[in-house]
Amino acid sequence: xxxxxxxxxxxxxxxxxxxxxxxxxxxxxxxxxxxxxxxxxxxxxxxxxxxxxxxxxxxxxxxxxxxxxxxxxxxxxxxxxxxxxxxxxxxxxxxxxxxxxxxxxxxxxxxxxxxxxxxxxxxxxxxxxxxxxxxxxxxxxxxxxxxxxxxxxxxxxxxxxxxxxxxxxxxxxxxxxxxxxxxxxxxxxxxxxxxxxxxxxxxxxxxxxxxxxxxxxxxxxxxxxxxxxxxxxxxxxxxxxxxxxxxxxxxxxxxxxxxxxxxxxxxxxxxxxxxxxxxxx
Length: 281
Prior knowledge:
single chain; 281 residues; alpha+beta; 434 Repressor (Amino-terminal Domain); Beta-Lactamase; 2 domains; 5-stranded antiparallel sheet; 13 helices; 5 strands; 48% helix; elongated
């Protein structure tokens, strides 16, 4: 889908999330034909003409001004991440058909991962491909897969694909729906920043075709970066493990992330479980 199509879908999804009473409009008792706000109502709140707003949703108006985008963001009650996503969707040029080069692991990032033998650590590309992981990270997240797979670009595991299509990974998360929402929200941000990425578009298409749950979450258009979260894992070898996932951006590879996984603060049982996996990994 073109960038203007993504902008229209995002606006429609956010508009459908609001009720008239949420924005100070009277909630008339008559039956509404659409969920959420009408286009005319949102246009009024944002101070733009209904015809111009309709063109935005239909992809016929581009290069909206910063003032218009700010007004729309305010009318839609967007949070800071959604505001940034809106600006990126509105400011992108049409995508090209060139195939992106394979992502490469910087030598300094490789050295960083190698210097952390006791902490589960992995490096993710912008599409959530595993570019590298150490033994503890492999044992914790994907012990049923080939540990050497990230060394071969064609075989690299993709954590988003595994979360939705691999039953082992799905079973790992005690609250799988929360993890799934977080991952899709982050993928939405990446897709807005890189509309020309054919490999990313192919991944989204594959998941939409093979996972109804992914398709539903993707259609919701929620955006949220994965910066650090706590999750409870149900590991097949060491049992329940409460972990915190820290996501760091290496300065020499800003489109990649280094993920460090630690036991939840004050949880000795989880700390001991990670230590056992570290010894095995």
